[in-house]
Amino acid sequence: MAFAPTAEEFIELASRVRALLKDERRKVDVGRYESHGSLAKIKHDVRRLVVIGDIHGDYESLAKILSRVDPKEALLVFLGDYIDRGEQSPQVVYEILSAKLKNPSSVLLLMGNHEGPPELPVYPHDFPLHLRSLYRDSWRDVYYSVMLCFRELYACSIMEGALFMVHGGVPARSVTLGSLARASQELALLEELLWNDPMSYRGVEPSPRGAGLLFGPDVTERFLKTLGVKAVVRAHEPCEGYEVLHSGRLITVFSRKGPPYFNGHAAYLDIRDPVKVEDAHQLAEEYAVLF
Fold it and tell me: pTM higher than 0.85, yes or no?
């Protein structure tokens, strides 16, 4: 059973992690990665990279992953969507923020579309209901402290020459590392990073989600060439743990199980020597861990 902190403990934790994330921007060198605004650059000497997709309030899956990985031995990259669609969203957020506070340079937190700014609303957004059931009249204070913390999360991450990690997908527009670093100040770009989904056809189409775009394999290929990386690692869509698309240039990772998705398997990536990764097929065959 997940631990339920007090409202005061939750507010203090969110405030401390928010301050920590702000301090990362000032320091730039965080240890295992560098902080450049909305972009985190993972250093080439990171020998083990654990990438975790959507959790959506599934504390059991989160606990299982964290029980298998020692943050002292790996850099954990969370791809976002910690909240909503799961009754234990508060406990999931508290656990992830606690991990960040305990091991700042070993836990890298990306923003999912469910942690995005109020200008990019999501549905369902039942995190407030889950907080209300735990904290009664104090739920709003907890909610606002957590949402302020979420505003400081990274929009994307890169290990140059190897991997690009993001919640949604690659943007259809032309980007540079500089524009990605400013993504939180450019709402249209942030929307694409958080909401875009891959499709099998070439080009770009409107998304049925009502936000973001659908992008084809040609868009992915162009993006990878521009940034000089081998593969995109993203989340955002339910699947049986992982799915390789775009001729091995992109992999979707989904790290929670149960309703409302009813997938039989979840997965995370446990990547050894990530700088040597050649494509998403290798990620799936050698480093995907199903449970």
Answer: yes
